[in-house]
Amino acid sequence: MVTKKTAEKVDIFVGRRKNSVARVRLVKGTGKIEVNDKKFEEYFPRETHRLIIMQPFELTSTNKKFDMYANVFGGGLSGQAGAIRLGVSRALQTMESKLRDPLKKAGMLTRDAREVERKKYGKSGARKRYQFSKR
Description:
This protein is an alpha+beta fold. The protein has one domain: Ribosomal Protein S5, domain 2, CATH 3.30.230. Helices cover 32% and strands 20% of the residues. The protein has helices at residues 40-43, 47-60, 77-95, 100-105; strands at residues 13-17, 20-28, 33-35, 38-39, 66-73. Strands 1-2-5-3-4 form a five-stranded mixed beta sheet. The protein is elongated. The N and C termini lie far apart (66 Å).
C-alpha cells in the first residue's frame, strides 16, 4: 500500500480471530497505540483485552519502540483483541527477524482457528437439545 503523503511503502499485516479481522501497521515511534482512530484505552475498556494486545510487545521488550495503528472489524472485543495480537506479532517478526523465535515459542504467530459451531436444525443450539418428554 502506498500512502498519498509520501511515496514510501507501508506494510500492513493482517490478523484474524473468530470473526474479527485486524489490519495492523507498525511505525518506529514512542509506543502510541490507536485502534480504529481511537485511543487504545478508549476502544478496549477491559484490562484483559489490553493485556492480550500488549503481549507481543512485552515478550520482545519493544514496548516503547513502535507506534501501532490498527483497523479492526467484525466479531466482538475478545476476537478483535486476538486478531490485533496476531497482526502485531507478524509485524514485529518482519521488522526484526531475531524476534521470530520468542514469538514462535510463545505461540503468537499461530492463527487460532477455533470458530463458533453453527446451529443445527431440530436443536436449540449447536449441540443442545430440546427437553425430552417421555409422556
